[in-house]
Amino acid sequence: MAQRLVSVWQPFFLGGKNVEAVVAAAVELEELGYSRIWFSAGFGADVPARFREILDGTERIGVASGIVSIWHSTPAEAATFTQDAERAHPGRFLLGLGASHAVLVDGDDTAYRKPYSKMVAYLDALDAAGLAPERRILAALGPRMLELSRDRSAGAHPYFVPAEHTAEARAALGPDRLLATEVAVVLDADPVTARATARQYTTGYLGLPNYTNNLRRFGWTDDDFAAGGSDRLVDATIPWGTPEQVAAGVEKHYRAGADEVAIQVLNGGDSATFPGDAFRALAAVLI
After folding, report:
1. Spatial distance between the Cα atoms of 275 and 9, rounded to a whole number of angstroms
2. How many Å separate Cα 70 from the centre of its chain?
3. Where do the H-state alpha helices sit in 132-208?
4. For a Cys staple, 283 with which of 32, 230, 236, 275, CB 3.0–4.6 Å?
5. Cβ(176)–Cβ(149) under 8 Å?
6. Parallel, antiparallel, or unpaired for β 5-9 and 260-265?
7. Measuring CA to CA, which residue among 4, 80, 8 is closest to residue 39?
8. pTM of the prediction?
9. Which class for 250: exposed (0-12), middle (13-18), buried (19 or more C-beta within 10 A)?
């Protein structure tokens, strides 16, 4: 493991309508020493201009899409956006690609077919457009997608996983690919309220088969997925507590082989407010 990067994953950056407030938050994260800002590209046809707005408004911090859906944005659009960003800000934009979920692509599951083959074809098109593999990263959970991440991109960006998955991902990627794991956290030392906040987040993800099937590979069962997740599952996937306790949970992923952890602070589903106090407190113990 050559790096130890502390990054941010936060829906605020796409959801915030005030460009000035978004850029101000990004500048503060840059000054605190965070390495990269991740956020979803949403599910529109184009890569949102917000990624470029943050790049233009900052000096050093990286920006990454977590993720651009391969069912929504075309390879041509993704390649053009990434190449333009690379020319303007060399080395700072990373195109995160993902196969998303059937329920988000087509409600009756008629369009979501063979996501692995779709990703391979998408990468072929990016190659044809001249987009270098090191400028893209794949949202990967299972073994086949992790191997594809290793062979056709800069690495993998797993989401909503325990540290055991990070260890498996590192073994699959080998030592030379970037492993940037998203980890959601709750800064609250009360176990009742902290887990309640965590379950506002886990409930939605535990309804998506891609995530539950992945967790089953590590021994979790339907009983763990009920009612927003068992205490044991919540504690394994969502570090909570004081900044020091949260940092200890994040450290498990570094020890398991992550080069980078993209921290998502959960604040009760409020994507309109930037949790600046939490990121300041975490910077003090992690950076």
Report:
1. 11
2. 15
3. 143-152, 163-173, 191-205
4. 32
5. no
6. parallel
7. 8
8. 0.95
9. buried
17-38 pLDDT, tens digit each? 799 999 999 999 999 999 999 9
Residue 218 token pair: 């590590």
CA distance 174 to 199: 33
Residue 269, token pair as written in the block: 């589903």
Tokens 């978004």 -> residue: 22
Quote helix, strand, coil % in the chain, to nearest 5: 50, 15, 35
Residue of 44, 34, 37 lying closest to 22 (CA atoms): 37
Give dist(CA 8, CA 25) in Å, integer: 11
In this predicted structure, the answer to whether residue 57 has a pLDDT above a threshold of 80 is yes
Relative to beta strand 240-241, strand 62-65 is: unpaired
The first and second tokens of residue 230, run together, are 């068992």
Res 206 pLDDT > 50: yes
Q: Are 65 and 39 in contact (CB under 8 A)?
A: yes
Please state the domain extents for the chain.
Answer: 5-286
pLDDT of 111-139, one tens digit each?
767 899 999 999 999 999 999 999 999 99
Non-local CB neighbours of 155 within 8 Å, separated by 6+ positions = 137, 138, 149, 173, 177, 178, 179, 180, 259
Pure H helices in 231-272:
231-237, 243-256
Question: What pLDDT, on a 0 to 100 scale, did the predictor assign at position 114?
Answer: 87
- Six-digit token pair at 8? 């941010």
Which of 2.40.10.340, 3.20.20.30, 3.30.70.1730, 3.30.70.1400 would CATH assign to domain 5-286? 3.20.20.30
